[in-house]
Amino acid sequence: MPITSRSTRALLKPGTKLMGMVKAFSYGSGSFEIANLLQFHGVDYLAVAYADEGVELRRAGITMPIMVMNPEPSTFDAILQWNLEPEIYSMHLLSQLEEEIRAANKTNYPVHIKLDTGMHRLGFEKKDIPELARQLKEHGYFQVKSIFSHLAGSEDPKMDKFTKKQGDLFREMSAELQKSLGYPIIRHISNSSGIHRHPDLQFDMVRLGIGMYGVDSSPEMQAKLKNVSTLKTTVAQVKKLAPGETVGYGGKWTAKVPSVIATVRIGYADGYSRKLSNGRGKMFIRGKLAPVAGVIAMDMLMLDVTLIPDVKEGDVVIVFGEDLPVQLLAAWGETIPYEILTGISQRVKRIYFQE
Ligand SMILES: *Cc1c(COP(=O)(O)O)cnc(C)c1O
To answer: By CB neighbour count within 10 A (0-12 exposed, 13-18 middle, 19+ buried), where does 230 fall?
Structure first.
């Protein structure tokens, strides 16, 4: 991890702040462990999706600022109690938070203002800015820590024109809000691929997500990143099948020749999609790729290891990692690395190595 955040630092203009995205169990890597490392390395901000994720980090001893991107009004009391910093994206949410801050006898509460520059997910629009600025200033309940927006296609050359438009609109809207509020506010719009593909959009801070976990959608950038996580399991049993015998639920795979099948300890309950059944997915075993045979079960699946000599009980099986990029697995499952990483269930044990 320090390696990847270091290669990102090298891409940043001097003075640009860094927000580490640790939502969704830190993209499956373990919230506290990653947050703690980022805190140690002096990253400026953390961001989570939901208040619960922030509370968990605070309980575990994380003291640095944490932005909550999707705060529900029912979690505002927890947000205030644990000094979390909510993203505000609508007037309604702002007034609900104001009530909570007033009731708690607080002032100057840190918030982050989300602008919609074209993604059309969450955020204020240009026409909302004057009223927003008025509300933010009125009773001194809020202190705006940052103004931000999100790029809809920073990794995609076909969207570069759209990205530029988002950047221009963001520059304009954030300047208007900043001017009305009259104090310095951090501006940020770039995610991982924005950092290297659109250096002109770094503004005051960038939000590093998947890049920190060693994954990028461009081959050039990927080559500069180090593999961060490996998902491994082991062979539980090896079986010899005669032609005509079938494997797994529904007998969906039939041995055409004398075959060797390895039963492996991972299933769809661990986040290995059932879509990867019957040869779509492959795993790395004894230095070779073995296809999935039959349908994936909840806790196990079978690999066809007929062409791989000497597979034995207890052999290590690589699901993804250095030799089997998560991008490849994502392509086989018709998804993106984000979904694979965040879909690995909590029962899969995470082990950390420090260099
Ligand atoms: C998840 C997220 C990011 C990080 O995106 P990556 O592509 O993983 O770098 C940045 N900003 C927002 C608002 C997000 O939700």
So the answer is: middle
